[in-house]
Amino acid sequence: MRILLVEDQIKTIEFIEKGLTAAGYAVDSFANPMDAELAISLNEYDLLLVDINLPHKSGWDFIKTVRMNNYNGIIIILTALSATDDKVKGLDVGADDYLTKPFSLDELLARLRAHLRRSHKSGKGRLLVYSDLEIDLVTRKVSRGKIPLILSQKEFSLLEYFMRNPERPLSRAQISEHVWNIDFETGTNIIDVYINHLRKKMENDQFPRLIHTVIGVGYELRQS
């Protein structure tokens, strides 16, 4: 599950990124709304968290722009503005919910889960399926050939990224950025270790290899 955060306060960014990452979500953060708009045009996001008081462009105008550009995912406003008129304005411009600062991480996570459940119940991409592999993004259950697989949060996020990009070679830098939200360091083998964990859990004599090594590039989810 990938989330885009548009916020210009460093402490708030760190607080939200830490909490969402620990909960198994991938987060891209931007202080400049124009940079966020570009990211939305290049990547697929399930949900946007948007502050209202932003540099260069207000959160209201940012939401209007992304909705006009056909972003159909969930948008939650995060702001210190608590007047009823502000809440109504946020919903009118295209937001789905409004969370007033300061808020607890538990409250934010509960709002995310509630909106994602409603979104997926309406048929908006609850399941990712490739070959005999299936991921339920709401229950976070994974199966191959109807046999349940028990994955850690990071293994789930890694497999989700592959499932969203099947039959496409993914570099270690891309995987590091999208799953770990960090720049890839050539001196670490963390990605290879997690790939090995996934392979052990989902590949055997009954279920052939789906995650293939692409020499000189990285890895690819594809059928042999």
Write down the CATH topology of the largest domain.
Answer: Rossmann fold
Taking strands numbered 1, 2, ... along the chain, how are they ordered across the largest sheet? 2-1-3-4-5
Count of separate DSSP helical elements = 8
CATH class of the largest domain: Alpha Beta
Number of self-contained structural domains: 2
Mean pLDDT across the residues is 87
Structural class of the helices, strands and pairings? alpha/beta
Name the helicity range: 40-55%
Low-pLDDT segments, ≥5 res:
none
CATH superfamily label of the largest domain: Response regulator
Please count the beta strands (DSSP E, at least 2 residues each).
12
Characterize the largest beta sheet: strand count, sense, and whether it forms a barrel: 5 strands, parallel
Characterize the overall form: elongated
Order of helices and strands: EHEHEHEHEHEEEEHEHHEE
Terminal CA distance? 27 Å
Strand content: 15-25%
Please characterize this protein's 3D structure.
By secondary structure, the chain is α/β, with parallel strands linked by helices. The chain folds into two domains: 2-121, Rossmann fold; 127-221, Winged helix-like DNA-binding domain superfamily/Winged helix DNA-binding domain (Arc Repressor Mutant, subunit A, Orthogonal Bundle). The protein has helices at residues 10-22, 33-42, 59-68, 84-92, 105-121, 153-164, 172-180, 190-202; strands spanning 2-6, 26-30, 47-51, 74-79, 97-100, 127-130, 133-136, 141-144, 147-149, 170-171, 211-214, 218-221. Helix 6 crosses helix 8. The two termini are 27 Å apart.
